[in-house]
Design a protein that fits this description.
By secondary structure, this protein is mainly alpha-helical. 62% of the residues lie in helices and 5% in strands. It is built from seven helices and four strands; from the N terminus they run H-E-E-E-E-H-H-H-H-H-H. The strands form two sheets. It has a two-stranded antiparallel sheet. The protein has a two-stranded antiparallel sheet with strand order 3-4. Helix 3 packs antiparallel against helix 4, helix 3 runs parallel beside helix 5 and helix 5 runs antiparallel to helix 7. The two termini are 32 Å apart. Bound molecules: zinc ion.
């Protein structure tokens, strides 16, 4: 049957479908990257691709994703806390690290899945991780100051209340912290983003 198609004089050097090897005329072939497909195969491949991409966002194991994200967030927050206390420099690169670890933790925890739900989970865990890390940094510096003044009170971890948490954070929450938070959120958002196919 392929012979009958390719015998046409209009296609002296017949292009063949990359999937079924049918010879194709110029009007029949559909270009895809470095090869051509017949219309039928192109539709089949397109459907397979869509199914594969859709399955990446299905049956997401959210409890495991949460666990992965939290582990990433804890690791990133500890590095940020340690580095900032030791050097007294809030390094943006480590903020990227928190978002990176949380985003990949969520995606890995879910078994390599990607979905809008994972993005939301990842952003929430990333933001909380960064804020907790910022709290830990302030707590350490405030407690050092209190110790130098010989006062017995200490800022505790975990904070006694949400009010205390934000009060300690607000002590030096400036533009740079906001920039770092934005970086964390961006990284956490972009990593588990579902693959979008062109129409
Ligand atoms: Zn074909």
């Amino acid at each position: 049957m392929a012979d009958a198609d390719s015998s046409s004089a209009a296609t002296p050097s017949a292009t063949r479908c990359g999937r079924c090897q049918t010879a194709l005329t110029d009007s029949e072939r559909v270009p895809a990257q470095d090869r051509f497909f017949c219309r039928t195969c192109y539709e089949i491949l397109k459907l397979q691709l869509r199914t594969t991409v859709a399955s990446m966002s299905e049956n997401v194991n959210y409890p495991m994703a949460l666990l992965g994200a939290v582990l990433g967030g804890v690791a990133g927050a500890l590095v940020w806390w340690g580095f900032t206390v030791l050097t007294k420099i809030g390094l943006g690169l480590i903020a990227v690290g928190i978002g990176f670890l949380v985003g990949h933790g969520a995606a890995r925890g879910a078994g390599g899945k990607r979905s809008a739900g994972l993005q939301a989970l990842s952003v929430a865990v990333g933001a909380v991780s960064f804020l907790v890390a910022a709290y830990l940094v302030n707590m350490t510096f405030i407690n050092q100051e209190l110790a130098q003044q010989g006062r017995p009170v200490r800022v505790p971890f975990p904070p006694a209340s949400l009010g205390m948490f934000f009060h300690v954070l607000a002590a030096n929450f400036g533009v740079m912290k906001l920039v770092f938070l934005a970086i964390v959120v961006y990284e956490a958002w972009i990593i588990p983003r579902p693959v979008k196919l062109p129409a």
